[in-house]
Each structure stands twice: as C-alpha cells, then as structure tokens.
Amino acid sequence: MSAALLSLTIPLATAMLLLLFRTRAGTVVIVANTASLVAAMLALDAVMTGAREQLSLGNWDAPLGIRFELGPLTAVLLVFTALIHLLVTIYAQASRHSKTRDTDFWPLSCLLHASLAALWLSRDLFNWYITLELLGLTAVAMIIISGPRSHLPALRYLLLSLAASLCYLLGVAFLYGRYGVLDIRMLAEVVVDDPGTRLAMLLLTLGLMLKAALWPLHQWLPAAHAAAPTAVSALLSALVVKGPLFILWMVWSTLAEPGFARQAGVLFAFAGIAALVSGGWAALRTPWLKVLVAYSTVAQLGYALLALGLLLYWQDPEMSIALWLFVLAHGLAKVSMFLGAGEMQATLGSRRVSALKGASQTMPLAMFAFAVAGGSLIGLPPSGGFIAKWVLLQPLLVEPSHWPWALGVLLGTLASAGYVFRVVTIAFNRADPSSPGHDPDTAAQWLAMLPALIVWAMALLSEPLILWFQEVGL
Amino acid sequence: MITTWTTLLPPAIVLSSLLPGLLIFSLREDQTRLRIGLNLFAVILKLGLVGLMLRGVGQGLEFRFALPFLPGGDLVLHGDATSLQFVSLSAVLWLATTVYAIGYLQDSPLQSRFFGYFSLCVSATVGLALAGNLVTFLLFYELLTLATFPLLVHRGTKKALKAGRIYLAHTLGGGALLLMGVALLHSLTGSPEFQAGGYVELLADAHQPSLMVAFALMIAGLGVKAALIPLHGWLPEAMVAPAPVSALLHAVAVVKAGAFGIIRVVYDVYGVDQVQALGLAMPLLAVAAATIIYGSLKALQQQELKKRLAYSTVSQVSYITLGVALVGPIAGVAALAHLVHQGLMKVTLFYCAGNFAETLGIHHIQEMNGVGRRMPLTMAAFTLGALGMIGIPPTAGFISKWYLGLGALEVGQDWILLILVVSGLLNAAYFLPLIYRGWFCGPPRQWPDERSLGSGLPGAGETHWMLLAPVLFTTVLALLAGLLAGSEVSPLAWSQLIINRQFGL
Fold it and tell me: In B, what residues contact A, Cβ < 8 A?
C-alpha cells in the first residue's frame, strides 16, 4: 500500500514544488513520473503476490475517515496512469512542436496525475467528487495553454463539467441523506431498491456520463480535445475521461439491485452501440485531423459502455475484464494517435485531414505510428484492442440469442476501420504531396510511435493479465 | 518449454524475411547495393530454412512453436505437410519475384518502402502457412492485408488509391467476418491445433446452428481473398499495382491465403465428414462452380492484358475451392496440387505481362501482334503458361483438371465435368487469341513505348536479364510440375500424402 501511496504523492509533491520553482520543469516531471511508475509497479507486484490492501487515512476508519483500497484493477490503473504520463511528458519535453515548454503544463500534468491516482484508490462517493472536481478543473486549465482559440471550447467544457459535478453531488447528497454513509462498500450493504435510491443513481449516472463524454452526452469532447495542445489532448483522451467511467462502473456494479441493473444495462449497451456508430460516422466526415481523433475517442468509449451495459444486463463479471482491457488498449493507442497527428499537423502546417497527402513519404514514422495505433483501435490482431474485443466477443457469441449484440461490435469495427484508413489512404497519395514546412522531428515521431508499439506488445502479455483478473476478480 | 532447433525453426522461417524487411525500411534510397544484398540474403536464408524443414518432416521430425496469446488459443506455428506445401511455394516464388522486382523497379523512387513491405508481405504469407490454429491464422491473415496495402498503392496515383480503397473495403470487411467466425468457434471449443479430420465432431449435436453460422462467416471472410463471387470485386481493380506485386498477389500472397484458409477450415477444423454432415459442401461447391464460369466469361470481355489475367485468376483459384468442396480424396489431391500449379503458371503469366509492358509498352491485347518475334523467350513462356491454364497435356494445369474430373466422378457429382469442359473452352477462347496474335500476326512498325532494357535483340537480350531469368525459372518449374507429376518429388505426390492422412487412407 505504501508504494501505491508513493505513486500518488510523488506527482502531488512535484506539482507543489513546481509552483515554487520552475527551473528545468520538464526534467523534474519526467524524473517524478519515472519514480511514480516504479512505485506503481511495486504496488502491482505486491497485489499480485498478496491480497487486496486497505488503508484508512490518519487511522480514522470509515464511515468517518477516508478509506483507500488497492485491488488488482487499481494497481494496474496506477501503473497505466504513470506510464502514460511518463510517455507523454517525455514527448512534451523532446518535441519541438509540443508548445508546452515554459508553460503551466508541467505542474498541471502532475496535479492531473495525482488526482487520477487518488480517484483509482478511493472507495467513497464524496472523495470521488473531490477527485472529479480536481480532474475537471485541471483539464480545463490544461486546454487553455494552447491560446485564445481554445478558450471557447474550454469554457464550454468547464460549464458542462460544473453542471455534471452538481448533478453528481446532488446524487451523493440524496444517498447520504437516505443511508448516512458514503463508503461504497458500506453503502452496498445497506442499500435498498426504492424510488429515492433510483433517482440518486440516475443523478450520479447523468453527471458521470457527461464527464466521461459517453454517448449521447459527448458533444463537448471533440472541440475540447482537439483545441488542446497535442500532449494535453493525449492525456485527456487516454486518461481523463476514464476517471468518471471508473466511478460509473464501480457505482453500478456494487450498488445497483439486479432488476434495476438489467433495465439500465440494456440502455447502456444501446448507447454504446450508438456511440460506436455515430462517433465513427462523425470521424469519417470531419475535415479536421485532431477532431477525427477526438471523435474516435467518443466511438471507442462506446465499447466500454457496451461492455458495462452487458455486464449489468447479464450480471456477468467477466465483462468487466473486457471493459478495462478496452480502456488500457484505447489509452495507449490514443496517445500514439494524438502525438502522431499533432506532429504531422505541426510539421505540415495545416490542421486538415487533406493536408496529409504524401505523409507516408514525408513523415513516415508519424504516419506509421498513427496507422499502428489505428490498427489497435480497429481491433486487428495482434494488438491490445484485438484482445479486448476478443474477450468482449466470447460471451456474445456463445449463445445464439446474444448474436445481435455481436453485430454492434462488427459495426464498430467497420466504422473504425473506415476512419483510420481514410487517413492512411490519403497519406499514400503521391500525386500532389504537401511538403513539410520545416524538417520533420525524427525523435518526436519515434516517441509518438512508442505507445503504439506497447499496445501491440500488450497482445502478447495480456493472457496472464486476463487469467489473473478471472482468478481474483477486479 | 524445451527450446531445440525444431521449436525454433518455424519462427525462424517467419523472421528470416521479417527482420530484413524492417532493416530495409531504415535504409536510405541511395543504398541500393545494401538493399539488394539484404533482400537476396533473406531470400536465400529462407529457402535454406524451408529446405531444412522439408528434410526434417521427411524424417518424421515435428516442428512446433507456441507462445501464450489468448486463453484457450496459443500462438502456434507448426510445420505440417499442408503448411509445407504452401511455405515451399511462397519461398520459391519469393526468390523469383524478388529478382524480378529488383529489375522492374530500377531507378524508381521509394524502393526502401517497397521492399520493406514486400518482405513483410512474404513474412505474413509464410506465417499464415505455418499457423497451427485458427487464432494464429487469423492474426497473419490480417497482417497480410496490412502489408499488401502499401504495395498496392505504391504508385500513389488516383487510380491506385481507388483500387487501394476498394481492396481495403473488401479485405477488412472480410477480415471482420473471419474474426467473427473464428471467435464464434472459439467460444464453443477454444482454438485447438489444426488436425486432420477436424475437431468439431463432438459439438455437432448440441451446437449445429452455431457451427453452420461459423462456417459461413469464415468462408465469407476467406472468400474475399480467394475472390469467390460476389466478393471478388477488388481483384480486377488491384491489377494497377506494379507487376511484381500483381504476380505475388495472384500467385501466392493474397488469393492463395484465402484458398489455403478454405483448405484449412474444411480439412483441419471441420473435417470432411462434418462438412458433409452439416450440408455445407454443396453450397460451397455451387459458389466455386459459379465463380469458375463467371471469371472465365468476364476474362473473355477484357481488352487489357492484366485485367484479362486478373479475371482468369478469379476463375482458376476457384478450382482449389471446387476440389475442396467435392469432399473426396481424389478431388482433394487436385485442389492441393492446383494450389502450387496455379501459382507457378500465373506468376509466369504476370511476369510476361510485366515484361511486355516494361520493354515495349504493351498493355492492350491488340498491341500484342507479333510480339513473339521481338521477345520470343517471354512469349514462349507466356504460351506455356497459357496452355497450362487451358489444361493441355502434359502441363501442370492438365494434371489438376484431370484429377478434379476424376474426383468429381468418384463422389458422383458428374455435372462438375460439364463445368470443367465449359471452363476449359472459355480458357482456350481467351488465351488462344493472345498466342495467335503473338506468334502469327505481323509486328507493328513501332512498339507503343519501347525502352532499351537489354541488347534489344530477340533472345537472351530481349529485355533486362533480371526480368527474363525469373520468367524462365518459373516456366521450367511449371513444366516440371506437369512432366514429373508421377514422381515422388512433385506437388501432386506431396498432395497425395496430405490427403491420405486426411481421409485415413
């Protein structure tokens, strides 16, 4: 447990430090992220050998104090968060185009890291509220680094995020008034299925879905993620939207009574398929490169939503594994995609998809990173996205009555193939290539490729992870 | 796992082209010698390794390599008799095509990218041939799609990109269907290794509809690459690719991957008995027969040489499916032998078409008049290939058709003979005019676009030697496959061995 806490406190302390001294911020943050990653790995190692660990902060037991819990999923997510932060900050430090040097990116990214780590560790509705607020505010602050053009989408994101927080807080207040506890496990013991509780659950869900940009409450995401600086876009898509998703999954899988969960599950699953199709369609239509990548996030969250819905509908805990594999694979792939896209648009001097003509010649590495990451989003073997889709498909296919859901997955696959290869095909156009405004930055392109390579390697490393999750539960 | 050379040989065969391919990507355009050296080194290394495996399998050694991948489905590379048939074909044709491509692409841009993807494409093909279970097969099947796309759009023209989009729409859709089929079957039994006679027998009672749907999904997914109608639309478009790519695409890599997958699914996943019992053989047979006739009819209408050859592939590859779908031992032998025979003949024809286009600028059929006097060796090779396709004895094509006919009679599907005869006549109708024009019509005063690639004299100097040598090499191989069909080293004899195991003869 102490290692997990270290993984949280190192970025927090670094953020505080950077508020005071801003010399060599990039190097300091990279070192801090590395340390946090090592700590998270130690925590994961401890969980793998032992059982779940609990920690009551300041020795105050729940319901008075704050309880942290370190389970298998939390440990994996801590490693994942630290790894993504490390990859992105190295890129932000090394790339000529990242536009984050000498900005508030460095302390803010550490703060983001710390709030996510706290979110994964918390098991308390109000504590989650605090981490959500921190997450949302930090995210907005990071978007506006890129200048006045981003103010409008950032403001919209801020307002919606606040509204969502209020919704969530209202739900928490309902539950607290009704049961007098906020710790999720204590709540699960006393919760009953009545209209008040259902209303509270709906309020929580509304807030969380808005924050996680789950269909149909995703409208703010493409503009906000596309307007941010490249490194920030990567963090937002890979990590920030996954926080509320975690709470949503936790709340529904522990608090909802089976009958209610089944009803909601169908709705979630349909929303997931709608997200896959409509997000994919929007990504196929948009003329802007980063908006395309952002819409792909909307679509990919559809897989997670579908898995969550079917988890509730069938009360099948195996679906959780599919859900979190999607989150891991999507996070890594999306980092690569945003970094590759950012490098290309900065070098080629245009934010349009059509400016990528000939990019397979002029910027082969960045384009390759984009394509390889896209392969994982489509779910081509051997990639992390393929493994996740495979685990999701197995229960869908075993019973003929479940086959219509598999059709949704098929549609999602085809839609993602459509938007990924739309970009790739343009890149092979040699008729009239756009010439780079200045020399492509080779090192930065390699850094963009790295997460994509990791997500493909994930295919070969996932089997132990799946078996472990199946054995001990999440 | 104990690692010995027998476990490491299958991945070594895949890596022998994969690693050089990755190295080639990193080369600068002007490092021509290093690139050629790497290419040839990889080709020869792979041939040597495949030869080693052939000898080992002859001695009864088992080559198997496994990595954990999915619960219930490891990543397995396994060298059995069926895979060796395909691996040897790929390795030999890769040698010829590499030499051809080096000659063909001289002085053209982006060679490192081309040869990099070229090597990846062969690695994927070989991996697919060695795949020991469905999950592994699926993995390499998708990788093959990804590796061939850049080759197809290599020229980067509007037309090439359009063909590329059509190709992707077909193959990615097919890949998704195959994935669904494989995942469906996996959800019932996991993915055990391929075995003669299949592994679904125990499920047949409880899960009959699921098995049928899985079969239909897999065949549809594989049928895209094998160009079964109505999924063949990408293949005629794909002929905009450079000639070596077309040759590889039509002879080994893509269409054969589909046909080989159908062989695997019918023989080693379902087993002939179950395919028969589930009533799946007849629809497959009907589709294959329809494709044979349709492809030939369309070929007859084409005025562009490469397009005519492309439709001829649609027709000829379906002989393999036809042989498999007849679910009899003799037809099975024909199918497996035709996998090799068609590859050798078609690769020759595409090389010849490439030579005509590169040397004299001939793209259309009416431009072929008198080409036999200017390029007698290439035209002779073309003639032999075309006669093989028609099925004139003693060519390899005749052997395939003879056995197919016998196989059809053996299982009582006499109407297949009619299909074979009609298709043979149609083949003659679209190939004989070319042969006639080439030899017996007078040459034009000026060729459409003549380039000085060789000495310009008919014979050994009629074109660049790197374009001519592969043609002669594959022609001789195709001839030998027909003439020596009765010997022990022929593709036919090897197919007989595979089929004897399958049917327990």
Answer: 67-71, 75, 110, 113, 135, 138-139, 142-143, 146, 149-150, 153, 155-158, 161, 164-165, 168, 172-173, 175-176, 179-180, 183-184, 186-188, 209-210, 213
